[in-house]
Amino acid sequence: MARNDESRKRLLFLVQFSILLAIEAIVCFTPLGSIPIPPLVATLGMVPVIITAILLGIGPGAAMGFFAGLFSFIVWTFMPPSPLAFVFTPFYSVGAVSGNFWSLVICFVPRILVGVVAGVSFKLLNRASKNGPLVYGLSGVLGSLTNTFLVLGGIVLFFGQDYASVLGVSMDILLGLISGTILTNGIPEAVVSAVVAYAVCRPLRRYSRNPAVR
Predict the structure, then answer these.
(1) pLDDT at 211
(2) Which UniProt keywords apply (predicted)?
(3) 140 with 190: CB under 8 angstroms?
(4) What is the pLDDT of residues 131-148, one digit of tens each?
(5) CA 52 – CA 49 distance, rounded (Å)
(6) Distance (Å, rounded) from C-alpha 13 to C-alpha 112?
(7) To which H or E segment does residue 47 belong?
(8) φ, ψ for residue 39, nearest 5 deg
(9) Cross-strand partners of 98
(10) Which of its termini does the chain have fewer beta carbons within 10 Å around, N or C?
(11) How many other CB atoms are found less than 10 A from the CB of residue 193?
(12) Does residue 35 have a pLDDT over 90?
């Protein structure tokens, strides 16, 4: 009986992870991953990572973050949406400016850490407020902002001058643009992540009979 229960848990985990991975692929490879919030557009790429971390744990959340980074790498390498793709892939260049090892760091590390931060935040916050609504929202916000700050910070740290030259602006202006991006994109994405984390994760954890997600 115990072996059967363990097999069911493992199967349920694989099904849940696979569904979330499929959703991650959809939001990364299709326009469905963008939500217009006039005059802004919030992306949903980190939402499946956050949901995975809250529902399945820190390790699976980090794994989903890796896949998010991999999908992003594929997009920026083979379907680059802008000339700034070099900051996410070493296989893209603009004139004398090209990506390198740090491109992989920016593409993968922040996404992986989204799963870690969201999972750890939920675990710690949930100890103080069992299944409280703010626990989900705060975990979603912290996970989303992890990606925003690490990606933008990595761009400035590793590619600041090159990024500014491709944009045709000075470093001072670039820093202003980065700050504006945090406000115009990072904050709306964090709000969306908080709302979705609460709307999806709370009822699933509350009513699921699977001990792995309680």
Answers:
(1) 46
(2) Membrane, Transmembrane, Transmembrane helix
(3) yes
(4) 778 999 999 999 999 999
(5) 5
(6) 19
(7) helix 47-56
(8) -90, 25
(9) 93
(10) N
(11) 29
(12) no
Q: Is pLDDT above 60 for 51? A: yes
**CA dihedral of residues 77, 83, 87, 90 (deg, nearest 10):** 40
Element (H, E) at 48: helix 47-56
Residues in the chain: 214
Domains of the chain listed by start with CATH number = 2-213 (1.10.1760.20)
Beta-bridged to residue 93, according to DSSP, are: 98
Residue with tokens 């984390």: 197
Question: Residue 108 and residue 169: Cα distance in Å, rounded?
Answer: 27
Are residues 200 and 56 in contact, defined by beta-carbon separation less than 8 angstroms? no
**3-state secondary structure at position 178:** helix
pLDDT tens profile 99-129: 999 999 999 999 999 999 999 999 999 988 8
Q: What single DSSP character describes residue 37?
A: E
Q: Using the predicted structure, report yes or no on whether residue 25 has a pLDDT greater than 50.
A: yes
Token digits for 195?
Answer: 């709302």
CA-CA-CA-CA torsion sign (53, 145, 41, 98): negative
Cis check for the bond before 39: say yes or no (omega within 30 of 0).
yes
